[in-house]
Amino acid sequence: MSNIDTMSVNAIRVLAADAVQKAKSGHPGLPLGSAAMAYELWAKHMNHNPADPNWPNRDRFILSGGHGSTLLYSLLHLFGYGDLKAEDLAQFRQDGSLTPGHPEYGHTVGVEATTGPLGAGMGMAVGMAMAEEHLASIFNKEGYPVVDHYTYVLGGDGCMMEGISSEAFSLAGTLGLSKLIVLYDSNSISIEGSTDIAFTENVQKRFEAFGFQTLVVEDGNNLEEIGKAIEEAKADTTRPSMITVKTLIGYGCPAKQGTASAHGEPLGEENVAALKENLGYPADKFFYVPDEVYANYKAIGQEKAKVEDEWNALFAEYCEKYPDMKALWDKYHDKHAADYLIDDEDFWAYEDKPEATRNLSGIMINRIKDILPNLIGGSADLAPSNKTNMKDAGDFSKNDYSGRNLHFGVREIAMAAIANGLALHGGLRPYIATFFVFSDYTKPMARLAAIMGLPITYVFTHDSIGVGEDGPTHEPIEQLAMLRSLPNFNVFRPADATETAAAWYYAITNQTTPTALALTRQNLPQLAGSSKEALKGGYILEDSTKEVPDAILIASGSEVSLAVDAKAELAKDGIDVRVVSMPCMDLYEQQSDEYKESVLPKAVRKRVAVEALSDFGWGKYVGLDGATITMKGFGASAPYSVLFKKFGFTVDNVVATVKAL
């Protein structure tokens, strides 16, 4: 290791330690232990351009151990990403700073993913690697590898313990994602102490079983050894690679290195000073980097920029030689390609017959796949039930990365993380699917999608007690309320074909919000009053003849037709009600106060909400004087028609409830 390399590695360590100490909060252990491998990767092996952080063919780097964020922030500052200053490092974990406690995508230039929970970044890295392989199979021509880059992900023992990493890497090995390289910061320390208390497995053997090439670097400070391992990983063109880099947590701090206390708390002022002295930095200077170190990073960045220059020239030649591929490239990257569908009659067309909304969704997917060639997705081994297979679109596999149907196996949480990675990579519009009750398994990664503003579509079928015979374990009750509670996450529960089309239209045209579709197993009638107004989240489906209705029935999904039938029965007794369909509370809440008053006027206090799920969240719509016909407990195992009667989802009960008001 040259002297300038040593100083450059130690600059990462010193900046990280100072940032955590000034904040009096943070995790210095990972940055101190992993600084050498991060520097070797970024400086000598990874293709990236600090002057153009969004260059499409850049290598991706994901910090799965996001608690060690000062490692990434130090790299971004030293390389000159987004003009991230030392002053920004000094504001680590402070309100409004560019250096929050964990890296946040879209907030700090150069951050590729909001990793959050341990292991999440591992799953997202698999998604990015899948995106690279798929796009390469579509666009690359002989002599023109316009999509040709690696995905690197760094994480530690905690990431390896989390089940999501096993799910994701099992699939990665099956798919032979050879441009995925995992850097395992192996220091055998977690918050509670030595990992031996809970984690003694042979991680290398596990990865070998997944189908990975496994490599070991015994000295995490040996740049030459680390570099050799990275090149060996890149040389394997049939398998993903996992490099175990044995590090010392808190390296360089005599009193803390190798201990659990180095993980998640400041080193202390005296220990930071000792660290600096140990690393050859002045103990009395804070956020200090010698000029020659800045110059080294700048020179490296300038060399990296030349790689993009070469790619730009190659891409320009490619576009000239293959104008049809240039047009396709533009379509893949056009975020507004589906906007015109709002007025496309074929998109909104349907057969006037009873149909399950999961079937209607399947029809929509197969319409959209011909409109958006970059639509890609699949199910956690439930495509035949979720109706998510794209006809004649091929299966994404180790033997054919051009397929658009993804097979995730029974791996819901990894599936959701992979979808995040597909979306983060760029150029693709992903959707994923499972039974609605299993949305619990997708929730942590869907939450990250909402935080990052990724327009992923979640197809959740078998949406209520209408599942029937499978019983309580498979009948979602609280899941709709759970997902509705997520900020920046829209949940549609459509009542018929028109509302299903509206849900899909919103899902593929919005740019910053994930969308979930809760869909029925059982057939539903097509409703004469349904319309594109569903895009407002809630609207009048059938109105009262009176200026002020006697009461208002509010429902979603399969219960809307029940409300319509109840309205007809109530009319026989001279009770004139309005029926409001509420397919998406989230969008309804975004409407103007004037619109919401026109749909649910405050003067009408007799309101009944009907939904075969939990009543949580309906209070704000029915008020203190209203009522709900909802589930108060779990379901049961019986045909759905029996269950709807058993739990009160009948015309007679709706009529009686309105009359009781």
What does this structure look like?
- By secondary structure, the protein is of the alpha/beta class.
- The protein is 42% helix and 14% strand.
- It contains 25 helices and 20 strands.
- The strands form five sheets. It has a six-stranded parallel sheet with strand order 10-9-11-12-14-13, sandwiched between helices. It has a five-stranded parallel sheet with strand order 1-2-3-7-6, sandwiched between helices. The chain has a five-stranded mixed sheet with strand order 16-18-17-19-20.
- The chain is elongated.
**Multimeric state of these chains?**
single chain
Judged by helices, strands and strand pairing, the structural class is alpha/beta
**Rg value:** 28 Å
Mean pLDDT: 98
Give the spatial strand order of the biggest sheet: 10-9-11-12-14-13
User: Could you tell me how far the N terminus lies from the C terminus, measured between alpha carbons in angstroms?
Assistant: 81 Å
User: Judging from the principal axes of the Cα atoms, what is the shape?
Assistant: elongated
Unreliable runs, pLDDT <50, ≥5 residues? none
Q: Which percent range describes the beta-strand content?
A: 5-15%
Total helix count? 25
Number of strands: 20
What about the largest sheet? 6 strands, parallel
Helix content: 40-55%
